[in-house]
Amino acid sequence: MDFKLILTAVIILSVTGAAAALILAIASKIFSVPVDEKAAAIRECLPGANCGACGFSGCDGYAAALSSGEATDAALCNPGGNDAAKAISEILGIEASSVKPVAATVLCRGCDSAAVQKLSAERILYRIQKRTDGTAPCARQENEASACR
Fold first, then answer.
1. Residue 85's domain is classified under what CATH number?
2. Is residue 97 part of a domain?
3. In the chain, how many domains are there?
4. What tens digit of pLDDT does each residue of 112-125 get?
5. pLDDT for 118
6. What is the model's pLDDT at position 97?
7. CA-CA distance, 92 to 67, in Å (whole number)?
8. Which terminal CB of the chain, N or C, has fewer other CB atoms within 10 Å?
């Protein structure tokens, strides 16, 4: 075997690898994106539900607004509750306020005959079909059927 040929191949590969590593290291410094450490710390305190209940696009948007000073209330996150509000307040150095509990309100009476019809059946592409037995889609007892009609 010719060890000189093997040694030459190893040296060429090592130099090529070192040059590629140097180019990638320089490129990572040039193209690096600055990260707001305060926003990242606030984001870690949030639950990650991305529900928008705070009024922002999601948890990342709320964290960015808090870190930039665009938003000042740390108690807007309902899924996170008081624990998240307290942790965010500690990061921002402000006084913690309590989260006001919010509950969803269902404004449905339970069946389609109790709802106001806004469009005719011909204009609706998606229709709720009646059951095969001909009853309305709401499942009520006979004594409660009058509330549906």
1. 1.10.15.40
2. no
3. 2
4. 666 666 665 554 44
5. 63
6. 85
7. 8
8. N
Do 89 and 113 contact (CB within 8 A), yes or no? Answer: no
For 56, the domain range is 37-92
Do residues 71 and 83 make contact, with C-beta atoms less than 8 angstroms apart? no
pTM, 2 dp: 0.54
Nearest-angstrom CA–CA distance, 64 and 116: 42
The dihedral sign for the CA sequence 115, 116, 122, 125: negative
Q: How large is the angle between the packed helices 37-45 and 59-68, nearest 10 degrees?
A: 130
Domain presence at residue 12 = no
The pLDDT confidence band at residue 99, using thresholds 50, 70 and 90, is confident
Q: What is the DSSP letter of 49?
A: -
The answer to whether residues 74 and 92 touch, using CB atoms and an 8 Å cutoff, is yes
Dist CA 106 CA 128 (whole Å):
19
What is the 3-class SS of 69-115, one letter each residue? Answer: CCCCCCCCCCCCHHHHHHHHHHHHCCCCCCCCCCCCCCCCCCCCCCC
